[in-house]
Amino acid sequence: xxxxxxxxxxxxxxxxxxxxxxxxxxxxxxxxxxxxxxxxxxxxxxxxxxxxxxxxxxxxxxxxxxxxxxxxxxxxxxxxxxxxxxxxxxxxxxxxxxxxxxxxxxxxxxxxxxxxxxxxxxxxxxxxxxxxxxxxxxxxxxxxxxxxxxxxxxxxxxxxxxxxxxxxxxxxxxxxxxxxxxxxxxxxxxxxxxxxxxxxxxxxxxxxxxxxxxxxxxxxxxxxxxxxxxxxxxxxxxxxxxxxxxxxxxxxxxxxxxxxxxxxxxxxxxxxxxxxxxxxxxxxxxxxxxxxxxxxxxxxxxxxxxxxxxxxxxxxxxxxxxxxxxxxxxxxxxxxxxxxxxxxxxxxxxxxxxxxxxxxxxxxxxxxxxxxxxxxxxxxxxxxxxxxxxxxxxxxxxxxxxxxxxxxxxxxxxxxxxxxxxxxxxxxxxxxxxxxxxxxxxxxxxxxxxxxxxxxxxxxxxxxxxxxxxxxxxxxxxxxxxxxxxxxxxxxxxxxxxxxxxxxxxxxxxxxxxxxxxxxxxxxxxxxxxxxx
Length: 533
Hints:
Distance between the termini: 30 Å
Mean pLDDT: 83
Largest sheet: 5 strands, mixed, barrel
Number of strands: 14
Helix content: 55-70%
Structural class: alpha/beta
Strand content: 15-25%
Radius of gyration: 51 Å
Strand order of the largest sheet: 1-2-3-5-4
Number of helices: 11
């Protein structure tokens, strides 16, 4: 009975195996619905990417959901040269996490998530049968964005310096009294209203002629709008003394547009001096660095113009007082000189009359007193000459002494101005050296932070990939476990403890051991049938 039972069990097992193989073949070649295909893709992606990953990408579009509080982003990768798009993906920051990440990112970088920023974020890969592939962002590292913004700022400054635009507007001389002002601002901005009110209601009664060139002064549209206004002013430059670029009444996070190259280039190329009052309290924008004069707020610009007008007026008054004093001094000098000339003329006239009288007496007594009169006349003439020479010598010495005093004062003043100028140059050089050293140190710190983050990110990514491969290997090993095969209905046939793979291994009378899911069978070989090939 045992051989018959074993043969029937083998036939039944073979039939079940053939039936399962047929079903598997049909399943493999049967068409899938789109939903089934997407479900398989989702399952494979969840198995292949079980954890979250750190990714670098550029934000192409931000779409916050005001009602639900979620934030939807379109991310792109443009490569190193930023000339072609290599990849793009959708991403989502759910409402609870967006409230934390959005506020934290804005506090650290000074601006919200917006198009054009590069970010380093941690995300999980998700695939939905209806919406397709997307990334769920769970964390954002703002230090990477800060480093990228600093790099862009340095590249913009180097480009402006190479093109000669960094100091071009500073080289223009601001008029002593700039009254005709071309204003670039938004007509509805509170800063513009405060600026005009302070100019028109200054306590000195000065008058200013202001012309508004409306422009958007915040957001992504600001560069093009400001450039158009600056180009219009350049076409009518003869009507103005200076350009005033002001902004006020908005959020500090909207000021990043003033680091844009195109706004800075427009200021550098402007034919008139540019004054800025765009509200940067924490740092200088590139527009501030390029402008002729940088002030913090619109009202500070208005105060600067009024103070400059007042300084010019005081200077004019001081100059007029100096002219009056100089005229009075010249008048006194002229009166003194006339008085001296009158005395000198009177003395010379008296001397001449005395000489005439003596000559007349001499002529009258010529015969008797000729030798005595001759000697007396020469004596008086010598006395007069000696007196004239003494007076002229004293006057000449007085003039020389006065000239030497004035020359000494002039030399002393010029020496002090020269020493002050050299001291100023030395302080400027010291400041430049300190600034350059700080910039180099900051750049090296940014590079160190960048490479440290890259090393950490690479090590973490390598570890995750290795762990993933290990889990896949464990799954394959587990799938091929003989115990699993037994659970599926397969059996193992052994001879003397060795697995039988061919009928060549057995002969008549051998006792075989057959293992199933729930026990072991022992049977004897009574017949061997070979398959016909």
